[in-house]
Amino acid sequence: MSEIQKPWFTCDGNGTSPDTAPRPTTRATRRQVVTSTVGAALAAWFGRSALEDVAFAETKESGRDILVVLFLRGGADGLSVVAPYAEDAYHRNRPNLALKAKEVVKLDDFFGLHPSLSALEPFYKEGKLAAIHAVGSGDDSRSHFEAMATMERGVADQKASASSGWLGRHLLHAPALQKTPLRAVAFDSIYPDMLRGAMEVSVVQSLEEFRLQLPENEQGKAATATLASLYQPGNDAVSHAGRETLAVLEAVKKIDPKDYKPQNGAKYPESHLATGLRQTAFLIRANLGVEVVTLSRGGWDTHVAQGGTVGWIAGELKDVGDSLAAFAQDLGTEMNRVTVVVQTEFGRRAYENDGLGTDHGLASVMFLLGGGVQGGKVYAKWPGLEKHQLVDPGDLRVTTDYRTVLAEVIAKRLQGTAWVNKVFPTVSPTDYLNIIKQG
Amino acid sequence: MERLSRRDALRGTLALGAIGVAASAMTGCSKVLQQTTAARHTPETIELPQEGDISPTVRLLNRAAFGPAWGDVAKVEKMGAKAWLDEQLQAPTDDRAETNGLQLRLATIEAIHSDGWELRDIPDVELLRQLQQAAVLRAVYSQWQLRERMVDLWTNHFNIYARKQDGFTTPYKAVDDTKVIREHALGSFPAMLRASAKSPAMLFYLDNQKNKKGVANENYAREILELHTLGVHGGYTQKDVQEVARCLTGWTIEERPFWKIMKDGDKENPFRSRGSFYFDEERHDKGEKIVLNRKIPAGGGIEDGEKVLDIIAMHPSTAKFIATKMVRYFYGTEDEATIAELAVVYLKTKGDIKAMLTHLLLPLADDQPPKGYAPTMKRPYDFLVSALRATNANTDGDKPIQDHLEKMGQALFQWPMPDGYPDTTDAWTGSLLARWNFAIPLVQNKIEGTGVEVDEKIKTDTLLERLFARRAEDSVLTDLRTAIVKHTPVEAMGLILCSPAFQWR
Fold first, then answer.
1. Which of A267, B46, B100, B263 is the most buried (most CB within 10 A)?
2. What does the DSSP assignment read for B258-327?
3. Residues of chain B found within 8 Å of residue A207, distances taken between Cβ atoms
């Protein structure tokens, strides 16, 4: 009973009428959503703001976490991110690149965080940050694109045929908490595959881009209204996207993201990722109905001159650690309704190469950060780094399927027990790592 | 693609309905559930737009060129589609036959007139700006439109991130643009593959310059198989990747000290040799290798890599992979029959790009569009260039224009991953706002270095006919025509460029 008792469709298990339930009631079709938001947008140009009640609606009582997914593109070296500093083979395989015991931020008596990630240590100690190691997919192509496509589609390996993304399936099956085109926001230059199949996705590089460069006078308003009318009738992909864009413009116009002041003394670094996370915090606090945010950060394809405590990867990790720490500090208690997932498409070879870099490998590391995370622990069935323990040609074996982590997040933090099997059909609740607190 | 994902979406809806029924039996909320499922059952399929009443000449110019510029339709109609296409296929690889206007604009751009070594003196940011500027100028103004389209295709096929390692790659990319992409854009694919394999930009970008005996670096070996030739499901194994990497050990960039180059290299001009391709025998793995079941005997030198290139260039999977890319690029689909036919042309002609283009493009000029042809969304670059051509804009192609491309998500030579910018409609639907915010200042002459002249008395029908090269009465323009009639010509032109119809080719 409990698996299906608290699903999305307003029933609270006691047969409460939908009329008295706070939200959501019935879900509108996409057409209705689009028409109504564009209608609202048009209304707003004439001085009314029908969208306002949508944009400022309360989301706090939904009980569904806001999910933030940070994808490290390029294959981040899990053995440098969370180093198995106590394993001899680690140092033998990487005489130049291995992090020494005294260099890492110790997470336990075996694993240590790269020193560049030290800003995350307090969250680990508070139990809000968990690491999962030797995690990955069944993809053995070691191709960035295949491995990313596998993980973004949320499938076992590259041979799986699903074309939609795992977040796309989640968003399709979960009822929208609000009718807003900001339901899913991708801070990206292109549409990320993990959101494929979802319908209310906004792909932006920065929220500040969300302004149409027409004057606010009558002429500008008339041109804007005509533009909206051009996008209203079509049933093609461009018209659909145009309607959503226009609705988002209206929503963001309500509050200027530039006015957003980080709280709790949080200081974001100056970087693309930090800007994205800062705007994510803004979206969360502004209650614009955002449910899912995705961010990408490249820079991990460290074939050559990867560096150790300083150098290439140290610099990349510093940005990630400082940005995430600022985000969590900024949101403070709001982190109780936020779960952050950090993942990468694969790890890198256990052996360093002649260019003091590492080639494409298999397993890597993931992080979960949030109030609902059973943190302060590294979850790993450690396969070991001795030659006979590695997968040819020398890669860390995957002992935890990345999907079990994501499935548990959906089930326990996104109220998704009723649809998690549509997102990850072959993952069973018995596979969960119990990395999420029972809510 | 779009239809498939929508079908997935629909399947999801049906599945959800099934859960709904199960759950309702348990909780007694059947009324709500029925409403919910009914609402979600309404199929919301995304369709391709209608092509409308387009002339075959315009269809050809929309695909084989960056859309018609003023006067193009009349010119092609006068000479005939086949003659035009034949002429396009004979395009020179340099700028000598261009108009004076374009030649003058290009004359001051150092990046396209010098070799790699000299270019090292130019700061990489400036060099990249020059490269981007030259690309836009040629795409907008070159009479060799098909060549420029192919340059765009191959630039992405053999993608190189010019800013790798703080722009160290940029001078190499400048040479790659001339010697690999432009030299072979309409030539032979195997020859282009070979040029690319010896291009310092590629060697540097995919780390083959570090690939040496005993400690092979697989990066380039993998991508040449996956992205340049066979395609990821083309029938190679991880072992093949490693063997190809071994064959390519020692393929590197000449960076030895001058006295060494003087000794056994180009004695005449050691400066010129620096930064060019160099085979380092000492770093080459001379052992036996087996690539795609073909034995490459021990004791070989540079010919090991050459053999690999021969094997993969003429592999049937390569024929299919290149054909797929060209069909998607020019037809907007992955029509299997069209791909299969084009792959046969590839194999028969040993990868002759002209033969493939003739086969693929000539049918576009028939009264009815060929099978496998469908509307496809312009990429930001296509959109920007076609807008500048359609409005007869005067542009210097400089930074303000490049900034707009970046905002639309397609900054030239800056796609970090080796697969090149995506070429499917669904990858680009997120870029509309940036397109609108380009079109609006463009028609208002607010983009520095770019100007558009708008006749204040022009009729909106005339504007529509100019910008779309089709009749204003065309059914696909009905809504647009009604909507813009109340606007000034400047506004109308901006709205046309912003419209859904202008985003499709």
1. B46
2. HHHHHHHS-SS-HHHHTTSEEE-GGG---S-EEETTEEE-TT--HHHHHHHHHHHHT-HHHHHHHHHHHH
3. none
What is the number of other CB atoms lying within 10 angstroms of the CB of residue B115?
17
Q: Report pTM.
A: 0.74
What's the CA gap between A402 and A138, in Å, rounded?
A: 9
Angle at B488 between CA B487 and CA B493, to 5 degrees: 90
Global ipTM: 0.88
pLDDT score at A317: 98
DSSP SS3 for A104: coil
Task: Give the pLDDT of residue B44.
Answer: 53
**pLDDT at residue number A179:** 61
Contacts of A286 (CB under 8 A, 6+ apart): A55, A255, A260
Q: Select from A163, A238, A360 the Cβ nearest to the Cβ of B5.
A: A163
Does B437 contact A235 at a Cβ distance shorter than 8 Å? no
**Contact (CB<8Å) B430/A199:** no
Q: How far apart are CA B351 and CA B313, in angstroms?
A: 8
CB-based contact B16 A145, cutoff 8 Å: no
Q: How far apart are CA A108 and CA A127, in angstroms?
A: 13
In this structure, the dihedral spanned by the alpha carbons of residues B55, B59, B60 and B65, taken in order and rounded to 10 degrees, is 130
Domain boundaries, chain B: 6-198+377-443, 203-229+231-313, 316-365
B267, with CB counted inside 10 A (0-12, 13-18, 19+), is: exposed
Q: Are A395 and A134 in contact (CB under 8 A)?
A: no
From B297's Cα to the closest Cα of chain A, the distance in A is 23
Write down the mean pLDDT value for chain B.
88
Asked whether residue A345 carries a pLDDT value surpassing 50, the answer given is yes
Could you say which of B28, B46, B431 has the minimum Cβ distance to residue A235?
Answer: B46
Q: Cα A292 from chain centroid?
A: 7
Residue B398: φ, ψ to 5°: -85, -165
Interchain pair B32, A13: CB under 8 A: no
Q: What is the mean pLDDT of residues B94-106?
A: 93
Neighbours of B74 (CB within 10 A): 11
Calculate how close chain B gets to A262, using CA atoms only, in Å. 26
User: Min CA distance, B87 vs chain A (Å)?
Assistant: 34
Cβ neighbours of residue A116 under 8 Å, at least 6 residues apart? A309, A313, A314, A315, A317, A318, A321
Indicate whether A86 pLDDT > 90: yes
Residues of B with CB below 8 A from A188's CB?
430
Contact call for A304 and B210, based on CB within 8 A: yes
At B173, which amino acid appears? K
pLDDT grade for B17, boundaries at 50, 70 and 90: very low
Gap between the Cα atoms of A76 and B379, Å rounded? 30
CA atoms of B260 and A11, how far apart (whole Å): 80
Q: Do A27 and B26 touch (CB under 8 A)?
A: no
Instruction: Report the range of poorest mean pLDDT among A267-276, B78-87, B259-268.
Output: B259-268
- Closest CA–CA distance from residue A146 to any residue of chain B (Å): 8
Question: Is pLDDT larger for residue B114 or for residue A402?
Answer: A402
CA A355 to chain B, closest CA, distance in angstroms equals: 7
Name the residue among A191, A212, A355 with its Cβ closest to that of B426.
Answer: A191
**Chain segment A303-328, per-residue pLDDT in tens:** 999 999 999 999 999 999 999 999 99
What is the bridge-based pairing of β-strands A129-136 and B450-451? unpaired
**Alpha helices per DSSP H over B142-265:** 145-157, 164-167, 170-176, 183-184, 189-197, 200-205, 219-223, 238-247, 258-264
Bond prior to A393 in cis (omega within 30° of 0): yes
How many CB pairs (< 8 A) connect A and B?
Answer: 228
For residue A62, give the 3-state DSSP assignment. Answer: helix
Nearest to B214 by CA among B286, B166, B271: B286
